[in-house]
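Researcher: Here's a chain I'd like modeled. Treat it as a single chain, no partners, no ligands.
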Amino acid sequence: MDSGTYENATPRGNVNLSHVNLLDDQQFWLAILVLLFGLVILAMQYRLLSKYRAKADEILRTFTTSLIVVVSLALVASGYGEQQISPVLGLFGTIVGYLLGASRNRDTGNRQGTDSTEIAEKSDE
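Model: Modeled as a single isolated chain. Structure tokens:
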């Protein structure tokens, strides 16, 4: 093939080749503001978790949950529609459910051999 065939090719359909200026877009600035807020939250969490010498799984759960909430808010703020964002939110929900469920199973695994009625009786005392 010679290089001349690609030079004269024209796009098919409705293609808008105009310049997009993101700095004037209100949704862009709102998404940036949400992401900056998320960075502030993560910095605060880092300071608190390092001060109290948290375990690695606690740090992972805390940071992952915060990141998922911030990224979800940024996606909504940037103007994505319900059709586009639903699969992403489903994936995020699965990740958070796994992390929180795995930690709960680990906590209850320490109490093997105790019946649920025994646990309820101990909490009543």
